[in-house]
Specification:
The protein is of the alpha/beta class and 285 residues long. The protein contains 10 helices and 8 strands. The protein has one domain: 3-Layer(aba) Sandwich (Rossmann fold). Helix 2 (82-95) packs across helix 3 (108-120) and helix 4 (150-175) packs across helix 6.
Length: 285
Amino acid sequence: MQSIILFVALCEMARPTRFELTTPKIRSRNKRQFLFYINPQPLNADAFEDQMFFLASHGYRVIAHDRRGHGRSSQPWHGNDMDTYADDLAELVQKLDLKDAIHVGHSTGGGEVARYIGRHGTKRVAQAVLIGAVPPLMLKTSANPGGLPIDVFDGIREGVRSDRSQFFKDLTMPFYGYNRPGAKVSEGVRESFWLQGMMAGMPASYFCVKAFSETDQTEDLKRIDKPTLILHGDDDQIVPIGASAILTSKLVKGATLKVYKGAPHGMCTTRKDEVNADLLAFIKG
C-alpha cells in the first residue's frame, strides 16, 4: 500500500484568482479517495500534519494547500474573502482533476468548504467534514443573536495591526485550551502556531478577519447534499459551539454532529487521536 502526502502551494499570478501548482511527481496504484484539507486562519497546511500522516498511512491520497496570503503562498492585497478562497479552491480541484474528494476544513477552512460547495456544487465532492468551523455566521446580528459582537473582531484586527507577533503568541493559549486549569501546555505547539501565523502575510492576517466573521454561509450549508461530519469541542473559545456547529447541524441535511467534551478549538492537535479515528470511521462509512 503506497501512501502519498501532496503539499500544494498557491502562487499568485497576474490575476488574483490564478495560481500555479507546485507538486511532487505522483506514482501510485492507490485508487482511494482524495482528502482535501483546508486550514484555519492564520495557519497553513502544516496544521493538519497529524491527520495527513495518519490518513496517508491508511492508504489515502491526502492533499493540503496554503490559502492565498498564508504559508508558502504569495501575499496578494486583494482576494482575501470567502468567495475568492472558494474560487481558488475550485480551480485547484479542477487542475488536479479531483473527483470523489473528501473536503475537510477546520475553522475558517470549514467556511471555505461550505462556500466552495455553495458556489461550485458537489459534483467533485464525496463527503464533507467541518471541524470547529465558523459557519453559519460568527458575527452577532439581529438575525444571529448568539453570535459574537463586532468588538471581538475589531479587537483581533487591532491585535494584528499593533503587534501581530505577540498577538499570535497570546492566541495560542485559548486556541489550544492551554489557559484552562490543569491543561498540559506544549511550548512546541505554541511555537509552531506562532511560526505558521507569521508566515501569513499582513494583508491576509488582517482582511481574513472580516471573511471568517462576517460571511453569512447559511445558504451555503443548505446546499450541501453529501454525507457531512461536524466535529466541535464544547469548550471552543475561538468559535463557540452554540452559534456554529449546533446551528450548522440543523442546516446541513442529514449531517452527523459529534461534540468533544472539554475540547478546545485546536482539537486536531490536542485530541488528534480521537479526531483521526473519527475521520477514518466516517470515510470508511
